[in-house]
Amino acid sequence: MRWSGVLLLCVAVLLAGCDANPAETAQQDVEQRLAGTWLRDYEQDGMHVRRVLVLEPGGRFRELVRGEGPQAGAALEHAGEWRFDGTNLKRRYTSIDGKTPSAPTMPYATFALRFESRNAFVGTDNVRKREVHYRRVEEGTLP
């Protein structure tokens, strides 16, 4: 009788520790880590481009873009929804410069993530065969 009580206690302790799927917990940790304001600085077509990406905890994002140089135009603002699937940061654009996207615009961006540090990550775009580098910046940063 005494051994059955100890056995029941062991089973109860083991079951209590199994309430969360480790993969889901890791995915949620990364989502929390991604929430915030990120900056991407790069050169493209003779222009210096700054992109500020704001990933909100509720799954919405805003992206502010500004180019500097002879070909630079006005600053742009995009918005949409984001999620992390365990490997990729996925964004679906619902607004591109204030307009609803339509064909042939591809309103999605997907990057396989690799964190360089707590405040920097590299995204690999396997479709366009390029890497993008983001670093965390203060809330309210403008491009």
Ordered list of secondary-structure elements with their pairings:
Blueprint: H1 2-16, H2 22-34, E1 36-44, E2 47-55, E3 60-68, E4 76-84, E5 88-96, E6 108-117, E7 120-125, E8 130-137
Antiparallel strand pairs: 1-2, 1-8, 2-3, 3-4, 4-5, 5-6, 6-7, 7-8
Describe the structure.
The chain is an alpha+beta fold and about 140 residues long. Helices cover about 20% and strands about 50% of the residues. It has helices at about 1-15, 20-35, and strands at about 35-45, 45-55, 60-70, 75-85, 90-95, 110-115, 120-125, 130-135. An eight-stranded antiparallel β-barrel has the order 1-2-3-4-5-6-7-8. The longest helix has 15 residues, at about 1-15. Residues about 5-15 have low confidence and may be disordered.
Estimate the mean pLDDT confidence: 86
Q: Estimate what percentage of residues fall within beta strands.
A: over 45%
Low-confidence stretches: 6-15
**Major β-sheet, in short?**
8 strands, antiparallel, barrel
Helix content range of the residues, please?
10-25%
The radius of gyration is 21 Å
Please write the string of helix (H) and strand (E) elements: HHEEEEEEEE
Structure classification: alpha+beta
The count of helical stretches stands at 2
Distance between the termini: 70 Å
Question: Which strand order does the major sheet show?
Answer: 1-2-3-4-5-6-7-8
* Broad shape: globular
Q: How many β-strands, per DSSP?
A: 8
